[in-house]
Amino acid sequence: MSIQALGEALWDKTEKVRPAVSRGGYYYALYREITEMAGAYASDGFRFYEEGDTVNAHAAITYGFGWLDCGCLLGIFTDIAALDDLPVIKETVAPKLESHLKEKTARYQRMLTDALESVIINPDKESPVHQAAVVVMNKAERHLKKAGQSIKDGNRLQALGELSYGYGFLDAGIRAGLLRVKKNRHLFTI
């Protein structure tokens, strides 16, 4: 899949999303925030792509997908499903962007590692949303590991997508109150 096609898929899903929660309630506010974040990052991704910056385009689009898919997990949308996995991007970056890709991937890997060490599960174990918090943590950890494997395989662009997606999922989980930041608040969109 191309970065542009992934961005179009995000935009399409964001446009189709409808709330599965009552207007005016607290979960409706969360629905609005998640869809606004996903839409904003889809828009940013397209702008970067049109400027020829495939590195930032891919990071923005996959980050937006992380937010949207976390909303799917929480059940605040009707009629859309989360990605099973990020598709493999069959695209290369321009030679002039290689150093930027390397730096950004390494930085995001450090940031996501630090972010995961900076949060704890918030809901009580008896709460029905406790398991959702566990899934959010596991999802972010899984994508961090997948990124490491992609780096070993020589596919930094895929690694950057995995990191951005995992980070988006984590940020949305924090915004939803599933995770509590215990340190390094500067690492999160809160």
Main beta-sheet strand count, sense and barrel state: 2 strands, antiparallel
Helix content: 55-70%
Number of helices: 6
Number of domains: 1
User: What is the 3D form?
Assistant: globular
Strand order of the largest sheet: 1-2
Beta-strand share of residues: 5-15%
What's the number of extended β-strand segments?
Answer: 4
Specify the structural class.
mainly alpha
H and E order: HEHHEHEHHE
* N→C terminal distance: 31 Å
Task: List the uncertain runs.
Answer: none
Radius of gyration: 16 Å
Mean of the pLDDT scores?
95
Describe this structure in words.
There is one protein chain. The chain is mainly alpha-helical and 190 residues long. The protein has one domain (3-187). Helix 1 packs parallel to helix 3, helix 2 runs antiparallel to helix 3 and helix 3 (54-74) packs parallel to helix 6. It has six helices and four strands. The model has no long low-confidence stretch (mean pLDDT 95). Helices cover 65% and strands 5% of the residues. It has helices spanning 3-16, 26-50, 54-74, 98-117, 130-152, 156-175; strands spanning 18-19, 77-78, 119-121, 179-181. Strands 1-2 form a two-stranded antiparallel ribbon. A two-stranded antiparallel ribbon has the order 3-4.
